[in-house]
Amino acid sequence: MTTPKRTDRSRAQILAAADQAFRELGFADTSMEAIAMRAGLTRKTLYNLFSSKDEIALTLIARVEAGDTGYRVRLAANEAALSLLAAVLLDSAGWCLANPSLARLALSPAERPSVTPPERPSFQGLVRDILVLGQRQGVIRSDENPDFMALLLLGIYGQAMLTTLATGRFNDGDIRRIVRLVVEGIGTQAA
Question: How far is CA 191 from CA 137, 186, 188, in A?
């Protein structure tokens, strides 16, 4: 068993300290100095490993996005796509409510998202893959590009979550309603 390098240990300490500080103080009120103090490291060490608290926050968000292994197993098992989609969005909503500062950054990124998900593990890629599964299962329309549909769904979800973070009102039914409205559309139902 190898011992983690000092750099890896320091990065882990910084990320843990920043995660805790962002939850307790919020992103805006957390300084790099506060993160260094909580991590038990010098500011120099902190700046050697991360250029800014934005970079730290983005690293924390990417770490959450990369943790989709359980969902990937469920995808491979051909779980019902709409149920899986609801579960993913509900879990994401729970994370957003537990991490409001990071959630605001993740939900309103500085760069406009691309229609094509990034090559790295991402929430957008996971949702797209669930939509592809839904297309194979016949519950998601197959005449549209799943990349575009994922971007559309996440735009609606993102706005709903930003509203939830501002108002503090949320329940599981809200997410299920978003999934239903996106899948069924907003037009009148055929008689």
Answer: 25, 15, 9
What's the pTM? 0.78
Residues 95 and 64 sit within 8 Å (Cβ to Cβ)? yes
Q: What is the CA radius of gyration of the chain?
A: 19
Residue 90: inside a domain: yes
Instruction: Report if residue 189 sits inside a domain.
Output: no
Residue for token pair 């329309």: 141
Determine the structural domain holding residue 157 and report its residue range: 67-184
Is 97 found in the same domain as 49?
no
Contact call for residues 31 and 53 (beta carbons, < 8 A): yes
Question: Does one domain contain both 51 and 98?
Answer: no
At 57-101, the pLDDT tens digits run 888 887 877 777 889 899 999 999 999 998 898 888 888 888 888
Domain membership flag for residue 24: yes
Give φ, ψ of 50 to 5 degrees. -140, 135
How many angstroms separate the CA atoms of 95 and 130, rounded? 19
